[in-house]
Amino acid sequence: MTELPGIVITGASGRMGQMLIKTVMASEKCKLVGVVEREGHDWVGRDIGEAMGGTAIGVHVSDDALEAFAKAQAVIDFTAPKATLAFAALAAQARCVHVIGTTGMTDDDLHELSHAAHHATIIRAGNMSLGVNLLTKLTKMVAAALDDDYDIEVIEAHHNRKVDAPSGTALMLGEAAAEGRGVSLNDVRDSGRDGITGARKKGDIGFTAIRGGDIIGEHDVLFAGEGERIILRHVASDRSLFAKGALKAALWGQGKRPGEYDMMDVLGL
């Protein structure tokens, strides 16, 4: 029998990290072989099962990412840009698939990731859910069908602890809209309005970010024309859908050539 692929989860103590750990442990298609936390974290050295409030499972939290990655076939990483870049270099060194759900990355960060992709399989997406990726495809199609007489606004809502705005998913949707129109998002992006801003510039793609409570993730793409509005919407009601999508990506990436992939590749969209 072929041995199940081993998965390492980074940022083990975070809400997404714990959800990923539970998802991997519940899967019959892989096994949890390591979890990573930053140096000095209270969980380092503890059994992850006990650290999460359950029973011991024989996997201990480590602050040595390379050692953990060396035992794995895939790493799932929802941390922060600086940490993700460091993990990318180590995942490339360990020759394991690197699934990245980290948001808030700059163009320079993405350029650095592309170097790691020369030696590793990297699957990165602003959102790992099937529904959001379908929404992204639909957004590109609608933007291509409508001219710039229709204003485009991406409206997103998340919990009050999210640190970046617009969300990675909102930017992914904005990129799709820009691609549909054949323009660069950097040239038409409007992310902040306050005070006397003047009239909206024709062709701009606007972003509105809402932060409050425990909202998991809601995204609307509004196409507003004279006399009508078209609204495409996705609402996430369970954070586990992101973890399931990330695990699907990690399994899909097994045996793939080094390079950069996204969830559209994973889902065949």
UniProtKB/TrEMBL annotation:
Boundaries of every Dihydrodipicolinate reductase N-terminal domain copy: 7-128
Catalytic activity, reaction form: (S)-2,3,4,5-tetrahydrodipicolinate + NAD(+) + H2O = (2S,4S)-4-hydroxy-2,3,4,5-tetrahydrodipicolinate + NADH + H(+); (S)-2,3,4,5-tetrahydrodipicolinate + NADP(+) + H2O = (2S,4S)-4-hydroxy-2,3,4,5-tetrahydrodipicolinate + NADPH + H(+)
Localization terms from the record: Cytoplasm
Positions of NAD(+) binding: G11, A12, S13, G14, R15, M16, E37, G101, T102, T103, A125, G126, N127, M128
Catalytic residues as annotated in Swiss-Prot or TrEMBL: H158, K162
Pathway of action: Amino-acid biosynthesis; L-lysine biosynthesis via DAP pathway; (S)-tetrahydrodipicolinate from L-aspartate: step 4/4
EC number per UniProt: 1.17.1.8
Enzyme class: oxidoreductase
SUPFAM superfamilies, sorted: Glyceraldehyde-3-phosphate dehydrogenase-like, C-terminal domain, NAD(P)-binding Rossmann-fold domains
Keywords: Amino-acid biosynthesis, Cytoplasm, Diaminopimelate biosynthesis, Lysine biosynthesis, NAD, NADP, Oxidoreductase
Domain of life assignment: Bacteria
Residue ranges occupied by any Dihydrodipicolinate reductase C-terminal domain in the UniProt entry: 131-267
Tagged with keyword NAD: yes
UniProt cross-references to HAMAP family, sorted A to Z: DapB
NCBIfam families attached to this UniProt entry: dapB
Name of the protein this chain belongs to: 4-hydroxy-tetrahydrodipicolinate reductase
Organism annotation: Celeribacter arenosi
Record lineage: Bacteria, Pseudomonadati, Pseudomonadota, Alphaproteobacteria, Rhodobacterales
UniProt gene name: dapB
